[in-house]
Design goal:
Layout lengths: L3 E2 L18 H11 L8 E2 L6 H7 L2 H8 L5 H7 L5 H24 L1 E4 L20 H11 L6 E5 L6 H6 L6 E8 L12 E5 L5 H19 L3 E5 L17 H17 L4 E4 L8 H19 L1
Parallel strand pairs: 1-2, 1-3, 3-8, 4-5, 4-7, 5-6, 7-8
Helix pairs in contact: 1-10, 2-6, 5-6, 8-9, 9-10
Pfam families: Hist_deacetyl
InterPro entries: HDAC_classIV, HDACs, His_deacetylse_dom, His_deacetylse_dom_sf, Ureohydrolase_dom_sf
Family: Belongs to the histone deacetylase family.
């Protein structure tokens, strides 16, 4: 059964006019139910992650400041969010959702988190709408619990997974693969296991060619036994922050290729959503929804 992490506090309220589309976390489950892709039994509600797992990916000094709401003004500004206890609770719930989705992936081949993909959170700081790195915590959890021995982080969001790259620079059991806009945020990139910077306006055919060649090579050389897939949809041409030129069909082909390849090689995969900033919220929801369509079709 496809198991999907979703909690009401994923939809943490933000001030009016805030550009981060929090409403997608409420609308996406509704769309999945409306289309009949899933039923209520497919969803599970995570609690908050235990502190010991947060400290596997983040420094104690940073976590202490975060949970006590004592980040500096500049540190808060870098995250892009107004800091509050509700926001920290939301972040810890998202992280737990990714960890549990990974456990379900081990059982069913795939697991999903409606939120997550917070790849800009570093060991000691948050950036770009990311306070805690659910990808990094999940990878550490899998390794420490001996549920996996080699984890591939496949990050196809338009923005480089700089925080994840920094956290795992000295960890040979985790391979970070980031395919992102060359001229997009973050302007200062970190060193991933493999970085594939893309020119502005790249379209479906070239994008998919680059992805297919490199992902097949990485799977052959690294031989992961678990994949964490950051499936951001800000690669769409309609995305106001993305600068790339993919169509909805291109995003669909990307996701089907990734999931089909993972299934064909029997590699459990946890999917987290990442970014999406098209002006029309319906485009964001449709782009994310097709990943769940692919998961149901290919795995169940």
């Amino acid at each position: 059964m496809l198991k999907i992490a979703y909690a009401p506090n994923y939809c943490h309220p933000l001030p009016a006019g805030h550009r981060f589309p929090m409403e997608k976390y409420e609308l996406l489950p509704g769309q999945l139910l409306y289309e009949g892709i899933v039923s209520q039994e497919n969803f599970f509600q995570p609690e908050q992650i235990a502190e010991k797992w947060i400290l596997k990916a983040h420094s104690k000094s940073y976590w202490d400041k975060l949970k006590s709401l004592s980040l500096s003004k500049s540190e808060i500004r870098a995250t892009g969010f107004p800091l509050s206890k509700a926001l920290v609770d939301r972040e810890t719930t998202i992280v737990q959702g990714s960890v549990q989705a990974a456990e379900f992936a081990l059982e069913f081949g795939i697991g999903m988190n409606i939120a997550g993909g917070t790849h800009h959170a570093f060991t000691d700081r948050g950036e770009g709408f990311c306070l805690l790195n659910d990808i990094a915590v999940t990878a550490h959890y899998l390794l420490d619990q001996k549920l996996a021995s080699r984890v591939l982080v496949l990050d196809l969001d338009v923005h480089q997974g700089n925080g994840t790259a920094e956290i795992f620079q000295q960890e040979p059991r985790v391979f970070t693969f980031s395919m992102h806009g060359e001229k997009n945020y973050p302007h200062r990139k970190e060193q991933s296991g493999l970085d594939l910077p893309l020119v502005d306006g790249i379209q479906d055919e070239v994008y998919l060619e680059v992805l297919k060649k490199n992902l097949v090579d990485v799977l052959e050389q690294f031989q992961p036994d678990f994949i964490i897939y950051q499936s951001g949809v800000d690669i769409l041409a309609s995305d106001k922050l993305g600068r790339l030129g993919l169509s909805m069909q291109g995003v669909k082909e990307r996701d089907y290729f990734v999931l089909n390849l993972a299934k064909s090689q029997n590699i459990p995969t946890m999917c987290c959503m990442g970014g999406g900033y098209s002006e029309d919220i319906r485009i964001i929801i449709d782009a994310h929804t097709q990943l769940y369509r692919a998961a149901q079709e290919l795995f169940f």
